[in-house]
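Collaboration report, partner site 2.

Our partner group contributed sequences for two proteins of shared interest, and the home lab folded both. The records are reproduced in the order in which they were received, starting with the first partner submission.
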Amino acid sequence: MHGIGNDYVYVNGFEESMPDPAETARKVSDRHFGVGGDGMILILPSDKADVRMRMFNADGSEAEMCGNGVRCVAKYAYDHRLSQRNPMRIETGRGVLTLAMQVVEGRVRGVTVDMGEPILGLLMIPVRREMLRKTVGNEHTGRFELQSGDARETVEATFVSMGNPHAVMFVDDVNSVDVRRLGPLVESHPAFPRRINAHWVQVRSPSEVTMRTWERGSGITLACGTGACAVCVAGVLTGRSKRHLLAHLPGGDLQLEWRQDDNHLYMTGPATEVFSGEWKE
């Protein structure tokens, strides 16, 4: 399944057992010797929600949350009759989220996710404050140095957590950014003790942006739902965008809204099932 190109292999944990999900995720995610994907997601029973989601990146590391992934979990659970509740509650590493589904002829076409409140404290994200150079007028933004060989460059980023950590970097031309080179340098910078997701963003207007992503543990991805939410928050915090935002990602578009009444992020986008199969191991 995929959410605007952010593709994962989904396992029905109501029926299947997974003794070593980290190792299986590495094998399954390999695009040459496995199925291929940005990672693997388990759909499991929950004692506090309708279903539970566990997410593993392509490198086998477990992540707290995936915005595109949780939409697909809701679609799978509804379409395959694991739960027929709408709205549906899904347990994640971020906590229990509520998802409202657009159902057409008995199948889910789109999903709006209540992503909860953004986490803005640097220690909670987490970001090591002592490794940043502060910027004037914004406590959520800082500068840090990247080093590649003998070359050094200074990067300014705004930091947000949506249950997983994000660094948002605003640029004049998003297509000119060498994401493949810079992504791993940002992800593994010592300022980020749990590594970080990196996003480069070009503001088209106060209500529209284009973004590219290097996802922690997976590399370049066509989309990142939690990242798009973080971009919406970062845009508001830095005065670049409004609370209603259309985000263009390489795989498609997401609608974001950071509401003032409850301080929650709401993300709306599609969820698509591509095929099903058997993993022989």
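Second partner submission, folded after the first:
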Amino acid sequence: MRHRFRDSMAVLAVTAVLALLSLAAARSVAQVPTSQVRRTADGQPDFSGIWQANNTAHWDLQTHAAQTARVLQAGVPHGAPVAAAPVVALGAVGGVPGGLGVVEGNEIPYQPWALAKKKENHDNWLDRDPEIKCFFPGVPRAMYMPYPFQIVQGTKKVEMVFEFANAHRTIHLDDVDPYPNEAWMGHSVGRWEGDTLVVDVTSFNDATWFDRAGNFHSNALHVVERYTPIGPDAINYEATIEDPNVFTRSWKIRMPLYRRLEERAQLFEYRCVEMAEEVLYGHLRKQPLVKRWEGKTMIVDVTRKVPPIDQLYER
């Protein structure tokens, strides 16, 4: 008991220090002179290039400790959580790295029913996360997945192309008609406020998540992004998130994005739809490759042969 209490206090202390460091970093970011910023011919910050986030928001927007796996089950002794059967063979590769959150205040203000659904999503991540099925990731999730993306900037349009799933979006800097439907990546309309590109994103469907931790939204999602240069090769990215169907108030995420500086930096195709066909359609096979399906949920049973106990402790 004493050790558990001591470990808990250590975790709290580390979290507090990381939060203070994050606040200090955010303040120092704002002090970077913009005279170093690359600019286009018309004087606007030039965001053209290949960019990538460098954090753990992809796994969980909030501060989180390292975990054995995203999918857990009761183990021994005393029901301690262990990696669930479908991912146990991945070992450390299937683990979740700990990391500092990117949510302002580290709180996502769910309505009570939505918080319960978020937990349910988390516990059933393997069956529910749209990323696993190679669906478009949505906004803002596309901005901090562990894959590069490219920005091509014009005077009236800004194009973003993402390596994952060949996803893409257009930010309209000119007058356009409202989007007539719902879209995975939403509908983006931008404007300049000094050196900051402000993007209003609406017309989402409800099929994307914010991360692998089960954080979700409805089709009432409204995202306001702010892209502010903080040097020649870095952007301070902010996204304010509103969804009155799911959250009690708006909330914000913030992180730096970094320009890829390799001489031959480029995007490669990651046509993951073809790689996800078994997950999407495997239950329709006459002779399924997976041992058992329940509807569209694959049930993977992993049986390990345990040697006699005298062999486990050979001297």
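Feedback sent to the partner group on the second submission included the following. Confidence is low (pLDDT under 50) at residues 1-11, 21-28. The chain has six helices and 13 strands.
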